[in-house]
Amino acid sequence: AIIRCSFFNYNINWNYGLLPQTCEDPTVANSEVDGAFGNNDPVDVVEIGDRQGKIGEILKVKPLGALAMINEGELDWKIVATSLDDPRASLVNDVGDVEKHFPIIFLLILFKWSLLRMLEYFCLLTHLIWYNFQGTLTAIRDWFRDYKIPDGKPANKFGLGNKAANKDYALKVITETNEAWAKLVKRTVPAGDFYPLFQTFFLAEFETNFLQFFVSNILYSFFLSSFFSVLVFFNGF
């Protein structure tokens, strides 16, 4: 998995990246997830290990489960995984092990008074007593459900009964999206079935049509330079 550079309205509590050589096919409706079509992106990975990764870092991960997020009507898989280098990697082998070995504790803050030290101590004691254990899978699902709400967008939905599928299902998703990526690279799908920018990215990466990629970028660069030259010329008057 490759840790990606993403910007959200509030912090994400896990390493967030993608699986290379995967593509969520926008031409295939998934009958198991409300008939949603793929979002034409690589498969996302949520790595739940202890260490905070760096942007662009490549991690070897162990898939544990999958969340079928429906993002603005499109299927956007979230593979839950842990780094093979994590101290608890050997303890988790399927989705059922996640809640046991990766619990998240949220303290319920009832109130806070700072006028009297006695009340402050009482609040601290209340924080320690009134806490709620929320599993990692639930926390991940709720985070991705709500993260677009500050932008004025509706909450995302989830298929598969609103629960995380097991490891075997996650591996099935990875296999299917890898096959979709292979079709894209080998040009075995009709032109226009995939988003052109995404297609061009893979063509450039694997140099299957280098001349076309090179010429198109030269023309694009020439257009931009000409455009800005005209702007500078008119701004001079």
TrEMBL record:
Keyword Metal-binding: yes
GO terms under biological process: phosphate-containing compound metabolic process
Annotated Pfam families: Pyrophosphatase
InterPro entries, alphabetized: Pyrophosphatase, Pyrophosphatase_sf
Recorded GO MF terms: inorganic diphosphate phosphatase activity; magnesium ion binding
Cofactor field: Mg(2+)
Transmembrane portions of the chain: 210-234
CC terms in the record's Gene Ontology section: cytoplasm
Gene3D superfamilies in the cross-refs: Inorganic pyrophosphatase
Organism domain of life: Eukaryota
UniProt keyword terms in alphabetical order: Hydrolase, Magnesium, Membrane, Metal-binding, Transmembrane, Transmembrane helix
Catalytic activity as recorded in UniProt: diphosphate + H2O = 2 phosphate + H(+)
The keyword Magnesium appears for this protein: yes
EC number: 3.6.1.1
Class in the EC hierarchy, top level: hydrolase
Family: Belongs to the PPase family.
PANTHER family: INORGANIC PYROPHOSPHATASE (PTHR10286)
Name of protein: inorganic diphosphatase
